[in-house]
Design brief:
Layout lengths: L2 E9 L4 H15 L4 E9 L11 E2 H9 L3 H17 L11 E2 L3 H12 L3 H14 L7 H10 L4 H8 L5 H13 L7 E4 L3 E4 L4 H20 L1
Parallel strand pairs: 1-2
Antiparallel strand pairs: 1-5, 3-4, 5-6
Helix pairs in contact: 1-9, 4-5, 5-6, 6-7
Length: about 220
């Protein structure tokens, strides 16, 4: 019988290392058929006060982190290489933008109710980092939803309203109260956490440690 494992993946669509972390986690789980994973994507906004039109990525990173153009380009190259190893393409250009992601989180909340949360999460990552699509465009978000089997009319209605805003805000505050200050943060069975965009090997070992500890507690 497969061992059940609850996974809370706290992350933001604007976070490139969350892509790396998710890919690493999924590849680790693919190596472990004995694990029955139940993944829940929890909202976190790196830039909750970001304007709807977003900001130029390079300018935003330089202003927020004091990074030089050379350091920013080096970081993007690391992301490109790390993504390629995990089957994900990061595209960057001088016009790349960082967007307000609250509508994405509201759609992901809905997708969770529809059983399509993982699929939509990956579609939004692709729209943002691979396709360089404008996440402030309701049609871009609706296209992502349709691509994973969700209803376009419903998606547009959610984006055009404040539906699920209260639920997402409450979830964000819950995880902040639990001590989450950076993403990705991956919580196993609500007890153990792995931080950062870790490779599959790190997640696999963490999961094995969690299951061993759970088994020990069950027989104590």
């Amino acid at each position: 019988m497969a061992a059940p494992l609850r996974i809370d993946f706290v992350s933001d669509i604007a976070c490139p290392w969350c892509v790396i972390g998710l890919r690493g986690l999924l590849q680790a789980l693919a190596r472990m058929p004995e694990v029955e994973a139940d993944i829940h994507f929890q909202p976190f906004e790196l830039n909750p006060n970001m304007a709807p039109e977003g900001e130029n990525t390079r300018e935003h990173v330089m202003a927020k982190y004091g990074s030089t153009p050379e350091r920013s380009e080096a970081a993007r190259q690391v992301l490109r290489e790390s993504g390629a190893k995990l089957g994900f393409t990061f595209n960057y250009s001088p016009d790349s933008r960082i967007w307000n992601t609250f509508d994405c989180h509201r759609l992901l909340h809905w997708a969770g109710l529809e059983g399509r949360q993982l699929e939509l999460k990956e579609a939004l990552f692709k729209a943002n980092f691979t396709d360089q699509a404008a996440l402030n465009d309701p049609n871009v978000l609706a296209d992502a939803a349709v691509g994973v089997g969700l209803d376009r009319t419903r998606a547009l209605a959610i984006v055009g309203s404040d539906e699920f805003a209260q639920e997402v805000r409450a979830e964000e505050q819950l995880w902040i109260r639990r001590g989450i200050q950076a993403v990705p943060s991956v919580v196993f069975n609500e007890k153990w956490m792995v931080r950062g965009g870790q490779p599959p090997e790190v997640f696999e070992q963490a999961i094995r440690n969690v299951l061993a500890e759970e088994a020990k507690r069950a027989t104590a």
